[in-house]
Amino acid sequence: MAKNKLRKFAEMKAWNNVFEPTLDPDTRHDFPLKGKWRSNYFKNDHPIVLELGCGKGEYTTGLARHYPKRNFIGVDIKGARIFVGAKEALDDELTNVAFLRAKIDFIETYFDAGEVDEIWLTFSDPQPAKPRKRLTSEQFINRYRTILKKEGLVHLKTDSDVLFESTEAEIKEHSYQLLELTWDLYKSLPEDLDPTIREILHIKTHYEQLFTAKGSVIKYCSFRIH
Ligand SMILES: C[S@@+](CC[C@H](N)C(=O)[O-])C[C@H]1O[C@@H](n2cnc3c(N)ncnc32)[C@H](O)[C@@H]1O
Q1: Which atom of ligand 1 is nearest to the CA of 53?
Q2: What sign does the CA torsion over 208, 63, 97, 125 have?
Q3: Domains along the chain with CATH numbers
Q4: Which residue numbers in the chain have pLDDT < 50?
Q5: Which of 77, 92, 153, 219 has a CA 20 to 30 Å removed from the CA of 122?
Q6: Is 112 marked active-site?
Q7: Within 10 A of 25 (CB to CB), how many other CB atoms are there?
Protein backbone atom coordinates (compact mmCIF):
# COMPACT_ATOMS: atom_id res chain seq x y z
CA MET A 1 0.00 0.00 0.00
CA ALA A 2 1.21 3.53 -0.78
CA LYS A 3 3.06 5.25 2.08
CA ASN A 4 0.73 8.22 2.00
CA LYS A 5 -2.34 6.02 2.47
CA LEU A 6 -0.71 4.20 5.37
CA ARG A 7 0.09 7.54 7.02
CA LYS A 8 -3.54 8.67 6.62
CA PHE A 9 -4.89 5.40 8.03
CA ALA A 10 -2.58 5.64 11.04
CA GLU A 11 -3.57 9.27 11.66
CA MET A 12 -7.26 8.44 11.37
CA LYS A 13 -7.01 5.70 14.04
CA ALA A 14 -6.54 8.43 16.64
CA TRP A 15 -9.63 10.43 15.59
CA ASN A 16 -12.80 10.13 17.66
CA ASN A 17 -15.14 10.77 14.71
CA VAL A 18 -14.16 7.71 12.64
CA PHE A 19 -15.26 4.14 13.40
CA GLU A 20 -13.66 1.19 11.65
CA PRO A 21 -15.40 -1.94 12.94
CA THR A 22 -14.03 -5.33 12.06
CA LEU A 23 -15.27 -6.94 8.84
CA ASP A 24 -14.79 -10.39 10.40
CA PRO A 25 -18.16 -12.18 10.05
CA ASP A 26 -17.72 -13.88 13.45
CA THR A 27 -17.24 -10.72 15.49
CA ARG A 28 -18.69 -7.87 13.42
CA HIS A 29 -22.07 -8.34 15.18
CA ASP A 30 -20.68 -6.94 18.42
CA PHE A 31 -20.53 -3.33 17.21
CA PRO A 32 -20.92 -1.35 20.45
CA LEU A 33 -22.63 1.75 19.03
CA LYS A 34 -25.51 -0.18 17.46
CA GLY A 35 -28.66 1.33 18.98
CA LYS A 36 -26.49 3.76 20.97
CA TRP A 37 -25.24 6.31 18.43
CA ARG A 38 -27.32 9.06 20.03
CA SER A 39 -26.63 8.29 23.69
CA ASN A 40 -22.98 7.21 23.47
CA TYR A 41 -21.53 9.17 20.58
CA PHE A 42 -23.60 12.26 19.74
CA LYS A 43 -24.88 12.69 23.34
CA ASN A 44 -28.21 14.10 22.18
CA ASP A 45 -31.51 12.78 20.89
CA HIS A 46 -31.42 14.45 17.48
CA PRO A 47 -32.34 12.63 14.25
CA ILE A 48 -29.70 10.54 12.48
CA VAL A 49 -29.03 10.95 8.76
CA LEU A 50 -26.76 8.59 6.79
CA GLU A 51 -24.84 9.27 3.58
CA LEU A 52 -24.21 5.80 2.12
CA GLY A 53 -21.22 5.48 -0.23
CA CYS A 54 -20.20 8.91 1.05
CA GLY A 55 -16.70 8.99 -0.48
CA LYS A 56 -15.21 12.24 0.89
CA GLY A 57 -18.50 12.98 2.65
CA GLU A 58 -19.50 16.28 1.08
CA TYR A 59 -23.17 15.70 1.92
CA THR A 60 -22.33 14.54 5.43
CA THR A 61 -20.38 17.69 6.30
CA GLY A 62 -22.47 20.01 4.07
CA LEU A 63 -25.77 18.95 5.66
CA ALA A 64 -24.21 19.04 9.13
CA ARG A 65 -23.44 22.73 8.68
CA HIS A 66 -27.02 23.46 7.63
CA TYR A 67 -28.60 21.37 10.39
CA PRO A 68 -26.65 21.56 13.66
CA LYS A 69 -29.57 19.84 15.43
CA ARG A 70 -29.29 16.69 13.33
CA ASN A 71 -26.58 14.03 13.43
CA PHE A 72 -24.82 12.89 10.24
CA ILE A 73 -22.88 9.70 9.56
CA GLY A 74 -20.99 9.06 6.32
CA VAL A 75 -20.51 5.39 5.46
CA ASP A 76 -17.96 4.11 2.96
CA ILE A 77 -15.54 1.23 2.71
CA LYS A 78 -12.68 3.38 1.40
CA GLY A 79 -10.62 4.82 4.24
CA ALA A 80 -8.62 7.31 2.18
CA ARG A 81 -11.86 9.00 1.06
CA ILE A 82 -13.42 9.08 4.53
CA PHE A 83 -10.18 10.67 5.76
CA VAL A 84 -10.98 13.86 3.81
CA GLY A 85 -14.48 14.37 5.29
CA ALA A 86 -13.49 13.33 8.80
CA LYS A 87 -10.56 15.77 8.81
CA GLU A 88 -12.80 18.58 7.60
CA ALA A 89 -15.32 17.79 10.38
CA LEU A 90 -12.56 17.85 13.02
CA ASP A 91 -10.97 21.05 11.68
CA ASP A 92 -14.37 22.79 11.55
CA GLU A 93 -15.48 21.37 14.92
CA LEU A 94 -18.58 19.71 13.45
CA THR A 95 -19.58 17.67 16.49
CA ASN A 96 -22.71 16.37 14.73
CA VAL A 97 -20.63 14.31 12.26
CA ALA A 98 -19.17 10.80 12.31
CA PHE A 99 -17.81 8.45 9.69
CA LEU A 100 -18.15 4.68 9.58
CA ARG A 101 -15.78 2.65 7.46
CA ALA A 102 -17.88 -0.38 6.65
CA LYS A 103 -19.72 -2.27 3.94
CA ILE A 104 -23.23 -1.01 3.33
CA ASP A 105 -24.16 -4.67 2.68
CA PHE A 106 -24.05 -5.17 6.47
CA ILE A 107 -25.64 -1.86 7.47
CA GLU A 108 -28.03 -3.59 9.93
CA THR A 109 -24.94 -4.64 11.89
CA TYR A 110 -24.20 -1.02 12.78
CA PHE A 111 -27.67 0.49 13.34
CA ASP A 112 -30.66 -0.74 15.32
CA ALA A 113 -34.22 -1.01 14.02
CA GLY A 114 -35.62 2.49 13.47
CA GLU A 115 -32.40 4.21 14.61
CA VAL A 116 -32.02 6.15 11.33
CA ASP A 117 -34.25 9.00 10.14
CA GLU A 118 -32.99 9.63 6.62
CA ILE A 119 -30.63 8.20 4.00
CA TRP A 120 -28.76 10.00 1.23
CA LEU A 121 -27.31 8.02 -1.70
CA THR A 122 -24.87 10.28 -3.51
CA PHE A 123 -23.52 9.27 -6.91
CA SER A 124 -23.70 5.59 -6.03
CA ASP A 125 -21.92 3.18 -8.40
CA PRO A 126 -24.45 2.36 -11.17
CA GLN A 127 -23.33 -1.30 -11.36
CA PRO A 128 -24.55 -1.73 -14.98
CA ALA A 129 -23.80 -5.47 -15.03
CA LYS A 130 -24.84 -6.25 -11.42
CA PRO A 131 -28.30 -4.79 -10.68
CA ARG A 132 -28.48 -6.53 -7.28
CA LYS A 133 -25.42 -4.56 -6.16
CA ARG A 134 -27.06 -1.18 -6.87
CA LEU A 135 -27.71 0.71 -3.67
CA THR A 136 -31.39 1.12 -4.67
CA SER A 137 -31.93 -2.57 -5.51
CA GLU A 138 -34.58 -4.47 -3.55
CA GLN A 139 -31.84 -6.23 -1.53
CA PHE A 140 -30.37 -2.94 -0.30
CA ILE A 141 -33.74 -1.24 0.22
CA ASN A 142 -34.78 -4.17 2.45
CA ARG A 143 -31.68 -3.55 4.57
CA TYR A 144 -32.49 0.16 4.85
CA ARG A 145 -36.09 -0.66 5.82
CA THR A 146 -34.78 -2.45 8.91
CA ILE A 147 -32.84 0.53 10.23
CA LEU A 148 -34.96 3.41 8.90
CA LYS A 149 -37.82 4.89 10.96
CA LYS A 150 -41.31 4.69 9.55
CA GLU A 151 -41.77 7.78 7.36
CA GLY A 152 -37.97 7.92 6.93
CA LEU A 153 -36.78 9.35 3.64
CA VAL A 154 -34.35 8.06 1.01
CA HIS A 155 -32.71 10.62 -1.33
CA LEU A 156 -30.80 9.68 -4.48
CA LYS A 157 -28.64 12.12 -6.44
CA THR A 158 -26.92 10.69 -9.52
CA ASP A 159 -25.53 11.34 -12.98
CA SER A 160 -26.35 7.78 -14.10
CA ASP A 161 -29.29 7.08 -16.42
CA VAL A 162 -28.97 3.34 -15.68
CA LEU A 163 -29.18 3.78 -11.93
CA PHE A 164 -31.92 6.40 -12.12
CA GLU A 165 -34.05 4.37 -14.53
CA SER A 166 -33.76 1.23 -12.41
CA THR A 167 -34.55 3.21 -9.24
CA GLU A 168 -37.66 4.64 -10.88
CA ALA A 169 -38.68 1.10 -11.85
CA GLU A 170 -38.10 -0.18 -8.27
CA ILE A 171 -40.19 2.68 -6.85
CA LYS A 172 -43.07 1.73 -9.16
CA GLU A 173 -42.75 -2.03 -8.71
CA HIS A 174 -42.68 -1.91 -4.91
CA SER A 175 -45.07 1.06 -4.55
CA TYR A 176 -42.62 3.15 -2.55
CA GLN A 177 -44.05 6.59 -1.86
CA LEU A 178 -42.45 8.95 -4.37
CA LEU A 179 -42.00 12.52 -3.15
CA GLU A 180 -39.78 14.13 -5.81
CA LEU A 181 -38.31 12.97 -9.09
CA THR A 182 -36.46 14.99 -11.70
CA TRP A 183 -34.25 13.96 -14.61
CA ASP A 184 -32.64 17.42 -14.64
CA LEU A 185 -32.32 18.67 -11.07
CA TYR A 186 -30.78 22.07 -11.70
CA LYS A 187 -33.17 22.99 -14.52
CA SER A 188 -36.24 21.96 -12.59
CA LEU A 189 -35.73 23.78 -9.27
CA PRO A 190 -38.63 26.22 -8.80
CA GLU A 191 -37.84 29.95 -8.35
CA ASP A 192 -39.58 30.07 -4.98
CA LEU A 193 -37.81 27.01 -3.52
CA ASP A 194 -36.81 27.33 0.15
CA PRO A 195 -33.24 28.77 0.08
CA THR A 196 -31.88 26.11 2.48
CA ILE A 197 -33.25 23.28 0.33
CA ARG A 198 -31.78 24.98 -2.74
CA GLU A 199 -28.34 25.15 -1.11
CA ILE A 200 -28.57 21.52 -0.01
CA LEU A 201 -29.47 20.29 -3.47
CA HIS A 202 -26.54 22.33 -4.82
CA ILE A 203 -23.93 20.62 -2.61
CA LYS A 204 -21.44 19.22 -5.14
CA THR A 205 -19.68 15.99 -4.25
CA HIS A 206 -16.32 15.03 -5.72
CA TYR A 207 -17.98 12.69 -8.24
CA GLU A 208 -20.65 15.22 -9.13
CA GLN A 209 -17.91 17.67 -10.07
CA LEU A 210 -16.18 15.04 -12.21
CA PHE A 211 -19.40 14.04 -13.99
CA THR A 212 -20.62 17.62 -14.49
CA ALA A 213 -17.29 18.53 -16.10
CA LYS A 214 -18.00 15.79 -18.64
CA GLY A 215 -21.46 17.25 -19.37
CA SER A 216 -23.61 14.82 -17.37
CA VAL A 217 -27.08 15.95 -16.29
CA ILE A 218 -27.82 15.48 -12.59
CA LYS A 219 -30.92 13.55 -11.53
CA TYR A 220 -32.58 13.50 -8.12
CA CYS A 221 -35.41 11.69 -6.40
CA SER A 222 -36.69 11.17 -2.87
CA PHE A 223 -39.04 8.47 -1.62
CA ARG A 224 -40.34 6.58 1.41
CA ILE A 225 -39.96 2.81 1.61
CA HIS A 226 -42.29 1.88 4.51
C1 LIG B 1 -18.86 6.77 -7.21
S2 LIG B 1 -18.32 6.90 -5.57
C3 LIG B 1 -19.24 8.30 -4.96
C4 LIG B 1 -18.60 8.91 -3.74
C5 LIG B 1 -19.27 10.18 -3.22
N6 LIG B 1 -20.61 9.93 -2.76
C7 LIG B 1 -19.28 11.25 -4.27
O8 LIG B 1 -20.35 11.56 -4.80
O9 LIG B 1 -18.20 11.81 -4.53
C10 LIG B 1 -19.14 5.54 -4.79
C11 LIG B 1 -18.65 5.30 -3.37
O12 LIG B 1 -19.44 4.28 -2.79
C13 LIG B 1 -18.59 3.40 -2.05
N14 LIG B 1 -19.26 2.09 -2.03
C15 LIG B 1 -19.81 1.44 -3.09
N16 LIG B 1 -20.37 0.29 -2.70
C17 LIG B 1 -20.17 0.20 -1.35
C18 LIG B 1 -20.53 -0.76 -0.36
N19 LIG B 1 -21.22 -1.85 -0.69
N20 LIG B 1 -20.17 -0.52 0.91
C21 LIG B 1 -19.47 0.60 1.25
N22 LIG B 1 -19.11 1.54 0.36
C23 LIG B 1 -19.46 1.36 -0.93
C24 LIG B 1 -17.27 3.41 -2.81
O25 LIG B 1 -16.20 3.04 -1.98
C26 LIG B 1 -17.20 4.85 -3.31
O27 LIG B 1 -16.49 5.69 -2.42
Answers
A1: 12
A2: negative
A3: 43-224 (3.40.50.150)
A4: none
A5: 92
A6: no
A7: 9
